[in-house]
Amino acid sequence: MSDAGTKPARYRRVLIKLSGESLAGEGESGISPTVVGQIAGELRDARATGCELAVVVGGGNIFRGLKAAEMGMERATGDYMGMLATVLNSLALQDALEKLDVPTRVLSALEIREVAEPYIRRRATRHLEKGRVVIFAAGTGNPFFTTDTAASLRAVEVGAEVIMKATRVDGVYSADPEKDPNAVRFESLTHFDVLQRGLRVMDTTAISLCMENRMPILVFDMMRAGNIVRAVSGESIGTIIGG
Fold first, then answer.
1. How many domains does the chain contain in total?
2. For residue 217, what is the domain's CATH number?
3. How many CB atoms neighbour CB 110 within 10 A?
4. Cα–Cα distance between 99 and 237 in angstroms, integer?
5. What pairing do the DSSP bridges indicate for beta strands 117-118 and 188-189?
6. Helix (H, G, I), strand (E, B) or coil at 12
7. Hey, how many other C-beta atoms are within 10 angstroms of the C-beta on 218?
8. pLDDT above 50: residue 2
9. Which is it for strands 217-221 and 239-241: parallel, antiparallel or unpaired?
10. Considering just the CA atoms, what is the radius of gyration of the chain in Å?
11. Which pLDDT band, with edges at 50, 70 and 90, does 6 fall under?
């Protein structure tokens, strides 16, 4: 367990957005049990600070509806397939968390009662109040919306205080830091800044929803061990958007 985990949580309730690719590890696709186990360990440590945790995980490591649409598949069909990919990732993360004795519930926007509970807002908040990690699967349940938008929507619905977007870089930059050595990192931005500058933090629907509901977004590097705990403990890491 990270020594940072001994610090109390700054936030009462947070929603963490994970990309599907983060579960693949070194590979470009699939699920790495080792990496999923490491992420589960970070989430366990974050929960130990006293913070209530909700999670939205993407499905890009398995299937991307938009990419399939570009190759000729009907967009709605591709998006539904992408939603099912998020269910697979959610179940993998649930399994890893429960191996660490962390009580976890998967709530799906698509009804798949054999493997996940249907999403009901009051049920979700009750699970959080009881200290369970809640994983929201299947996006919003509707095509044409990303898991970024699902994260924004669920965060607002369950009363999270902040969305924490875990990425491969240590914040938001003026350009892609992996391609542009002159890219500048921002300490803070407003939601409007993100929209106006066209920064690829989340899609515009997600950012607009957060702006409308005054939901802050913290973008941070999840590749550094202990950073999820540092984030929920209120340490100054990454880029804060919207206050």
1. 1
2. 3.40.1160.10
3. 17
4. 29
5. unpaired
6. coil
7. 22
8. no
9. antiparallel
10. 17
11. low
